[in-house]
Design brief:
By secondary structure, the chain is α/β, with parallel strands linked by helices. It folds into two domains: 220 residues, P-loop containing nucleotide triphosphate hydrolases (Rossmann fold, 3-Layer(aba) Sandwich); 60 residues, Alpha-Beta Plaits. The protein is built from eleven helices and 14 strands. The strands form three sheets. It has a six-stranded mixed sheet with strand order 6-7-8-3-9-10, sandwiched between helices. It has a four-stranded antiparallel sheet with strand order 2-1-4-5. A four-stranded antiparallel sheet has the order 12-13-11-14, with no helix packed on it.
Length: 301
């Protein structure tokens, strides 16, 4: 569906994509994760053929890109980071106008509009102005608009950034439906919970390189101890001074919180009976822990 082999791109002598290999299988949701500046958006722009690589080969749906980028883009759906809906048109008109970019006849798009609006949960909003929509509605409309040409492959750049939790869940539900219908999705995200829920496989990028790749479960199992204790509140320093040396744990301090990574949480939990005012949370390891360990960047910022 999408293949990148040894792809490189420099700006001003700095390599921002430094040799990336990717291979998306039909029907999977693939995530590109990474801290700001890791090269995620540049990788998407290369795959779209909007910029040319300095080295390497890119194929989208079998088409070499950028040589045949226009042909490839006709079969793609793209949801950009910032909504680019036209405020001068209604919801339904936005779909119609977008369809024209693909050379679709108005009658063909008209026939698709009810289904696209239903998919977006905007059945009653066809005649509404864009300004009257909430952020979540706009994002769902952008997603519906990206489906106007019935694409096999969708690129989504941070699909839920800026949305509230409920609106995020509604987008996740739509993306799962699309994968359920056999579509292939490439998405970039900052949100580890999003990647963990949606992505069949993902790559973690840092400094233009893929530093880890696999299913969320594989990445957690490969890189992180299975149990995590998060220590916070008053007295963490004193508690660690008294107990850390005796515990078979790896410690990471991020802001106010100390993370203890453990194979066996029981000894530490026994010691935590003397936690005093300090608070703690026990949980299984997740992708955010992997991210933190591999990139050293805190995503909570
Ligand atoms: P991400 O999407 O992971 O945040 P980007 O791909 O947007 O990262 O950016 C990677 C790096 O490339 C950043 O340091 C950014 O400043 C730089 N960059 C991206 N586009 C350009 C450009 N057109 N000119 C110069 N530098 C760029």
């Amino acid at each position: 569906m999408l293949s990148l082999q040894g792809v490189r791109k420099s700006y001003g002598g700095r390599e921002v994509v430094a040799g990336i290999d990717l291979d998306l299988r039909p029907g999977e949701c693939y995530g590109l994760l990474g801290p700001n500046g890791a090269g995620k958006t540049t990788t998407l722009r290369l795959a779209l053929g909007l910029i040319a690589p300095d080295a390497g080969a890119i194929h989208v749906l079998g088409e070499p890109v950028p040589a045949r980028a226009i042909a490839a883009r006709r079969r793609l759906g793209v949801v950009p980071q910032a909504d680019s809906l036209d405020p001068d048109f209604t919801v339904a008109e936005n779909l119609l106008v977008y369809g024209r970019y693909f050379g679709l006849r108005d009658s063909a798009v008209h026939a698709r509009i009810p289904g696209l609006l239903a998919f977006a949960g905007l059945e009653t909003r066809g005649a509404a102005r864009i300004a009257s929509l909430s952020g979540g509605m706009k994002r769902r409309l952008s997603l519906a608009r990206a489906l106007v040409n019935d694409p096999e492959l969708l690129f989504l750049d941070e699909p839920t950034t800026g949305l509230d939790p409920q609106a995020r869940h509604l987008i996740w539900d739509r993306l799962k439906r699309l994968v359920g219908r056999g579509r292939t999705i490439l998405l970039t995200t900052h949100f580890m919970d999003e990647a963990e829920r949606l992505c069949d496989r993902l790559a973690i990028l840092d400094n233009g390189r893929i530093i880890a790749q696999g299913t969320p479960e594989q990445l957690v199992a490969e890189h992180i101890e299975p149990h995590v204790l998060e220590l916070f509140g008053e007295g963490v320093g004193q508690w660690l001074d008294a107990h850390a040396a005796r515990l078979p744990a790896r410690f990471e301090k991020v802001g106010e919180t100390t993370f203890c990574y453990l194979r066996d949480p029981l000894p530490a939990l026994a010691e935590l009976r003397q936690a005093g005012a300090m608070r703690y949370l026990q949980r299984p390891a997740n992708l955010e822990d992997v991210f933190l360990k591999l990139t050293g960047h805190d995503l909570r910022d």
